[in-house]
Specification:
about 500 residues; GMP Synthetase, Chain A, domain 3; nine-stranded mixed β-sheet; Rossmann fold; 3 domains; alpha/beta; five-stranded parallel β-sheet
Length: about 500
């Protein structure tokens, strides 16, 4: 990172689309070094955790790179997290410093007060209870900046960052990714951004956000920064700033094409590649995109946070709806989840993956690590898919119950945990309902306590009031007299999904 940033010098690293202000790689390096010097003055040492809780802006990547310069661990948080999530990540990662946006600083400070912990809080902007980011950059002189050198690594497999990955049982787990993972992400040339204008909306909370930032820096790209996705604004940004490469989540792609701006009102002549991920792009959507923008490559990828990013990637000649072929440094096999037998082409089973850049493990959670990665080093993805005769991977279903909504991975258990606290709720199970634009919506099945009079809308409102926006029960609530159960006494989620399929069969 140090070498790449210095070598790009006066190239434009970031362009803030709201203000049209630009920042060169030399200016980026200056800010990173000043931030690293400030971290050193706070006593930050190798292995300490530096958390970052913000949206995308020209300074959001600065503390992450600064942390790597002093051998600390950077740890992105969700800017929109609620208080229970803040309490959880504070306890899990015990950061020494937290960099916050003005939006997230209040929930962070409230969480710190409840946990009785006292990391230093830095805000991008201003807040009474936090140090200003602009102030810490003024905390050192030019001579200190000129003499600064990054700390050498003792072990390339040392943890560089802790990402977060939700599980079906509740709160996010910490995913440890090594410096070796970061190095190979930076060296990977699966798609080229060299000297091109690029655009994405993934924050650093997503592995795609970290991966794209690392690739952009090492390849010398110019990143166009805009805080949130909007269908027409995206087209305007592409045309105005001559964007060549854009990453969109699957739900963004669905909204992008269905809005009707691309290819009609805006021809987008500069655009070369749309890279999609987060959920499967349906073949018909990919066909429509190619028809609407025939000069653009529409490429789908498959990956996981635990795997350090992409493990397969489409090429222009691959079939619509496939996730492409296996990436460099990755092994994949399809396994019958019941028998453990390795399956052949066009046979569906669980996707097992082995990669030299996969996670070191779940942070402070050896049991979860052991249940995900077997003794031979294969990660059991929980996804069902198959390879066709040409070696292209197709994802058809998931074993895991995570609900994917606009790039978020929602744990049904978290929603169930909130609903069960409502005085009217006896038992609850949350499943996913497919949605044409957003990927999936959560649907709650509920049995009420005897005599309870609450309506479906009251429970929908209860979740909306007590959880972040992406957890809302957008598919609604269905009351049952009794749940179906499996032979072992568990709620039969498969039966619930069949019931929902019949109920929603006329919806798109």
């Amino acid at each position: 990172m140090w070498i790449s940033i210095k070598s790009h010098g006066d190239k434009i690293a970031h362009l803030d689309a709201r203000t049209e202000e630009t920042f060169t790689y030399a200016e980026l390096q200056d800010k990173v070094v000043r931030c690293a010097l400030w971290l050193q003055k706070q006593g930050i040492k190798s292995g300490d955790v530096i958390s970052v809780c913000t949206n995308n802006h020209p300074n959001c990547i600065v503390p992450c790179i600064a942390a790597t310069y002093v051998n600390a661990i950077f740890n992105p948080w969700n800017e929109s997290m609620d208080l229970p999530t803040a309490l959880h990540v504070l306890q899990l990662t015990t950061p020494k410093v937290i960099f916050c946006s003005e939006k997230s600083v209040d929930v962070v400070l409230k969480g710190m007060k409840e946990k009785n912990c006292s990391p230093t809080v830095v805000v991008f902007g201003k807040h009474v209870g936090a140090t200003s980011f602009s102030d810490i950059l003024r905390n050192c002189n030019d001579a200190e900046v000129a003499n600064f050198r990054y700390a050498e690594l003792d072990d390339i497999k040392q943890t560089a960052c802790i990402m977060h990955s939700s599980g079906t049982t509740g709160m996010p787990k910490g995913v440890e990714l090594s410096n070796y993972t970061m190095l190979l992400i930076s060296e990977d040339n699966n798609f080229n951004m060299s000297n091109l204008s690029t655009l994405w909306f993934s924050s650093l909370y997503w592995i795609s956000g970290v991966m794209l930032n690392v690739k952009a820096i090492t390849q010398g790209a110019t990143v166009i920064i805009y805080p949130e996705f909007d269908e027409e604004m995206t087209c305007q940004l592409i045309e105005k700033f001559k964007v060549a490469v854009i990453f969109l989540s699957t739900s963004m792609i669905n909204r992008f094409i269905r809005a009707g701006y691309a290819g009609r009102k805006y021809s987008l002549p500069s655009l070369k590649v749309i890279l999609g991920g987060g959920a499967v792009i349906k073949p018909k959507v990919q066909e429509e995109l190619k028809r609407t923008l025939p000069h653009v490559q529409i490429l789908q990828a498959y990956g996981m946070t635990e795997l350090g990013g992409l493990v397969t990637l489409q090429q222009p000649n691959h079939k619509n709806g496939s996730c492409g072929t296996i990436a460099k440094n990755v092994q994949i096999k399809i396994v019958d989840p019941e028998s453990g037998k390795v399956l052949g082409p066009n046979q569906s089973g669980e996707i097992w993956i082995k990669s030299i850049i996969m996670m070191n493990g779940y942070y402070r959670n050896p049991e979860a690590t052991k249940s995900t990665i077997d003794e031979e080093g294969w990660l059991h993805s929980g996804d069902i898919g198959y390879f066709d005769e040409d070696g292209e991977l197709f994802i058809i279903d998931r074993i895991k119950e995570l609900i994917k909504y606009r790039g978020y991975q929602i744990s049904p258990g978290e929603i169930e945990g909130v609903l069960i606290t409502h005085p009217a709720v006896l038992e609850v199970a949350v499943i996913s309902i497919p949605h044409a634009i957003d990927d999936e919506h959560p649907l709650a099945y509920v049995t009420k306590k005897p005599g309870a009079k609450e309506t479906e809308q009251e429970l929908i409102n209860f979740v909306a009031k007590n959880m972040m926006d992406h957890y809302k029960l957008r598919a609604g609530v269905i009351f049952l007299d009794a749940f179906p159960y499996t032979g072992s006494g568990k709620i039969a989620r498969k039966d619930l999904k069949e019931m929902a399929k019949k109920l929603f069969k006329h919806t798109n």
